[in-house]
Amino acid sequence: MSTIDSVLTETRVFQPSAEFVKQANVPGMAAYQALCDEAERDFEGFWARLARETLQWSKPFTRTLDESNAPFYKWFDDGELNVSYNCLDVNLANGNADKVAIIFESDDGAVTKVTYRELHARVGRFANGIKALGYKKGDRSIIYMPMSIEAVVAMQACARLGITHSVVFGGFSAKSLQERIVDVGATLVITADEQVRGGKTIPLKPAVEEAFAMGGCEAVKNVVVYRRTGGKVAWTEGRDLWMHDVEKGQSDQCEPVQVEAEHPLFVLYTSGSTGKPKGVQHSSAGYLLWAALTMKWTFDLKPSDVYWCTADVGWVTGHTYIAYGPLAVGATQIVFEGVPTYPNAGRFWETIQKHRCSIFYTAPTAIRSLIKAAEASPDHHPKKYDLSSLRVIGSVGEPINPEAWMWYYNNVGGERCPVVDTWWQTETGGHMITPLPGATGLKPGSCTLPLPGIMAAIVDETGEDVELGKGGFLVVKRPWPAMIRTIWGDPERFKKSYYPEELGGTCYLAGDGANRDTDGYFWIMGRIDDVLNVSGHRLGTMEVESALVAHPMVAEAAVVGRPDDLTGEAVVAFVVLKRARPDDAEAAEIAKELRNWVAKEIGPIAKPKEIRFGDNLPKTRSGKIMRRLLRVVAQGESVTQDVSTLENPAILEQLGKAL
Ligand code: WTA
């Protein structure tokens, strides 16, 4: 709680300069307020107007919002369009054909640029290629690719044909990949031979082979492979095809398949508090509308900007703010293959300087690690680079602490660029609570105010609004076009997770705790459920626990988060082995094995930072594990809470000792 108190006492407010306001897409608070008022006054009219102005419809919609089957809301549902048409063809028609769409900066610094015309042609050829293989609207594909132009081509080609894609982050293990292939019912997998990050190659196609060997993937007819490195890979004739062979001989022109507004553009898996990751299903029209609008509102995007989002396409940020949003507004964007610290900690700053980047969007965990690196190696401090091209800088993925915010503002933004701290989620599709750079006064550590049309609020457990200054659950009281539509194959879980009866059944529960100050600014306090946020990546404690107990040596496991200076939160696991509790030397060995095991089961990001072994776990008499106490123990603090309901209070002392 102490960190929350400290951010709430932060009083500095940074107003946008008059110069910025004058040129802004949303110029000043009055303009922001006018949009909010419009949404309040005529909610459906507001969204209908924006949807007509922003997107090109092959069949115009006549119904804006259908709430008859809430919380399964439908938006613009009798309209039709094609997402890829709106991202590519529209730009060919409106004078952007020869504008650079993507500046690809590879791991080793080589640069490839593609214009909108070229990107349109590549997507057309690839879409024609997979169409020729028999894939069509309604099919599902898995995309397991590195950061590349080809990943964007793959996503856009699927969108062009109405194939619902599910991108799996390249850092996820074969096991995670297999689970997603099975759950989404994929018939097509698009991958690469290997990926390159930080000077190292990491296999991708071999993980696909491994996933197939686990079984359940028999529905997959083809594996299309982008040749990134030329590394040797196993090959199944008839099933496996090179991406360049699929494109070969195909026409640049591929007629876009017009889909209903609600057609699922993609399913993206994310962690929840219980069970397996859930497949968050997004729509076509509502999603794209918000991707395009927030590009203009939050980033103040203009035709002359060079925009860079450092996220991976495997996360929602890489979907909305790389694969779709920037293209939908005709932006020039940088797509980066590498890591922030290779070949040195100045890589981000050098890349901004090299391409005259003007809008930069990254995560607090990257900022924090670069603060440390800049201190350790002053040559790679952002001040050593020419960052004068920047005009807006953004943050996403977790709360940004005021200290990191100030460093970012001063050293990267040159005390000139507004910092847009964007709060949103895989489920929300796009930004929800964020400053508008030409309007909102900024308070370091606060994501400030909801976007127009987003009815965010803070309520107590009965759904009543709490007073300003009091913490509670962050909710959204009205639906919005880019919202999650359902959990793939599990509508009941969708309802239970996001629209609980306790809150009336029509109020979206985000799963975050938040506070509002007397100016109405939102301060996010972190998850209220068993979801951890490690380096901006969501992880369910249950997921890590299931991975641990799947190891033959493990009888029981409980996983909690611990605040961490660098990664935000760190995973701490308490483990009971089937055999006797190991001594220190043995414990270190077993801990290492278990950490690697988790990396194999889920992915390296899920590796526990620390594992502690006990004879048992702290449980109530009814057998419930007391995670609340374990969180205290994990932080190295002594338990002062009442432990009288514990079956075995002595266990706390044993678990309190770190290795
Ligand atoms: C957290 C990432 C504070 C939050 C786009 C949310 C944030 C979860 C912020 C969603 C922010 C994201 N300030 N917390 N600006 N942005 N979060 O689904 O806990 O990977 O619920 O989406 O990240 O993570 P997800």
UniProtKB/TrEMBL annotation:
Acetylated. Deacetylation by the SIR2-homolog deacetylase activates the enzyme. The modification N6-acetyllysine is found at K624. Its cofactor is Mg(2+). Residues 93-480 form the AMP-dependent synthetase/ligase domain. ATP binds at G397, E398, P399, D421, T422, W423, W424, Q425, T426, D512, R527, R538. Catalyzes the conversion of acetate into acetyl-CoA (AcCoA), an essential intermediate at the junction of anabolic and catabolic pathways. AcsA undergoes a two-step reaction. In the first half reaction, AcsA combines acetate with ATP to form acetyl-adenylate (AcAMP) intermediate. In the second half reaction, it can then transfer the acetyl group from AcAMP to the sulfhydryl group of CoA, forming the product AcCoA. Residues 32-87 form the Acetyl-coenzyme A synthetase N-terminal domain. Keywords: Acetylation, ATP-binding, Ligase, Magnesium, Metal-binding, Nucleotide-binding. Its EC number is 6.2.1.1. Mg(2+) binds at V549, H551, V554. It catalyses: acetate + ATP + CoA = acetyl-CoA + AMP + diphosphate. The keyword Nucleotide-binding applies. It is an enzyme of class 6 (ligase). GO terms for molecular function: ligase activity. Residues 543-624 form the AMP-binding enzyme C-terminal domain. This is Acetyl-coenzyme A synthetase. InterPro entries: Ac_CoA_lig, ACAS_N, AMP-bd_C, AMP-bd_C_sf, AMP-binding_CS, AMP-dep_synth/lig_dom, ANL_N_sf. CDD domains: ACS. CoA binds at R197, G198, G199, K200, T317, S535. It comes from the Bacteria. Belongs to the ATP-dependent AMP-binding enzyme family.
